[in-house]
Amino acid sequence: MQLKIYNSLSGEKEDFKPIVKGKVGMYVCGPTVYSNVHLGNVRTFLSFDFIYRSLMFLGYKVRYVRNITDAGHLTDDGNVENDRFVKQSRLEKLEPMEIVQKYTIDFHDVLKQFNLLPPTIEPTATGHILEQIELAKKLLNDGFAYESNGSIYFDVKEYNRRGLNYGELSKRNIDELIANTRALDGQDEKKNPQDFALWKKATPQHIMRWKSPWGEGFPGWHLECTVMSTKYLGDNFDIHGGGLDLKFPHHECEIAQGKAGHGEEPVNYWMHANMLSLNGQKMSKSTGNYILPKDLISGENDFFEKAFHPSIVRFCFLQAHYRSVLDISNDAMLASEKGFIRLMDAIKTLENLQPKANSTLEIEKWYQKSLDALLDDFNSPVLISHLFEAVKWIFQIKDGQESLNEQDLNFLKEKLNAFVFDVLGLESVESSKNNKLDETLQILIELRNQARKSKNWELSDQIRDRLLENGIELKDGKDGTTYNLN
């Protein structure tokens, strides 16, 4: 049983060899909590939740660290007005830490709705200011950084001059980047445009500020993840994950800080989840092609014809591999809902199946194929395809076309439930539509029973036939009338 993981650093699938046998240290870049978590973020965190669940299913003990970025950061132009926390606090007339609290709660609420497991440790950037200052001091003392006007910058050229390779993750040539980069206003205090801030001097207008050896300021964005990941997982750990948009410059800078600060490669396997698009186009607030998770769940939007339960959205997301672009649309969500309902119906049906003397199906081979999908870089769509092979078998067993002995039947129940609920993280839910459908059908069944009692066979047959035309089969038995959705 060999797990293979696609390593963004090598660009290849590699055999996964944990640093400590049976244990995994995994760090995933968390949210910057200045606004509502968007659906693309949910896709990233859901992908790593699936990976986290899969690793545990495969028998690993996982320490999963996911941070909260709650410290203000400037954009490349150095303008304090573009600090996201400052800007949002002024818009909402709240203190920056009120913004942090408000949107941290939103983040946790949304992820709970989608049934994401909490990480083992969830550190905050503001809770590790001292450690960030210490790492900045070390990089400065070792000649990998320099002070300029009260700010500390990482010296990319010096890093490369010492035989290290800034650009190894994103496969970029740093000399070409420097030559082709236009210096932005306010960046004349840096030696080179690609140098990045470890610590920024706070202007009088900047609200979030801390004392340091270089005066009052705040940490650079990249520094916090290096500090928190290594504090809780060690200077070298197994897996670092995040969205594809973080590969450069954020993760590239983390590698440079880790190598320069600790003298070794910080991460063995870099994993990146791909983007989410809506109706074939990039999601963007500016173009209006944008939807929040709560609006998809509630149905209050202009893109989808109805509301969708979070577990159905989760099922939709997992039908694409985490490294593939996922496009969602009204048709895709409706198809996912249909598949989800059939999967849940099969699991419910499986609980009531009775064993036979002999098995006509090779359940262990099915399980191995399903397991192989997980081992092949956490291939959720292939896993789901194998689950629907089992779904087909379940209804064939119900109809008497196939059979399982008691041992195989129990094995199928155990493994199918584990894959669906423990690994995929789906929840067995009765949607409001299903509840209303059931209530409506019970009314029609009662009306048909009344028609039969009064010997109105024409009406009785009409109700039965009209329902059958719409894929609903009524079955009369000694215990009453039941229905099947075909």
In words, what does this structure look like?
With 486 residues, the chain is α/β, with parallel strands linked by helices. The chain has 3 domains: 4-273, HUPs (Rossmann fold), CATH 3.40.50; 277-423, Isoleucyl-tRNA Synthetase, Domain 1 (Orthogonal Bundle), CATH 1.10.730; 432-485. It is 46% helix and 15% strand. The protein contains 16 helices and 15 strands. The chain has helices at residues 39-57, 84-92, 96-113, 129-141, 156-161, 174-180, 221-233, 247-262, 293-298, 310-318, 330-351, 363-375, 380-398, 406-423, 432-453, 457-469; strands at 4-7, 12-15, 23-28, 61-66, 145-148, 151-154, 196-201, 217-219, 237-243, 267-273, 276-278, 281-282, 326-328, 472-477, 480-485. It has a 4-stranded parallel beta sheet, sandwiched between helices. The chain has a 4-stranded antiparallel beta sheet with strand order 5-6-7-8. A 3-stranded mixed beta sheet has the order 12-11-13. Strand 11 and strand 12 form a beta hairpin. Helix 7 crosses helix 8, helix 11 (330-351) packs across helix 13 (380-398) and helix 15 runs antiparallel to helix 16 (457-469). The longest helix is centred in the last third of the chain and has 22 residues, at 330-351. The chain is elongated, with a radius of gyration of 28 Å. Mean pLDDT is 92; it is low at 74-78.
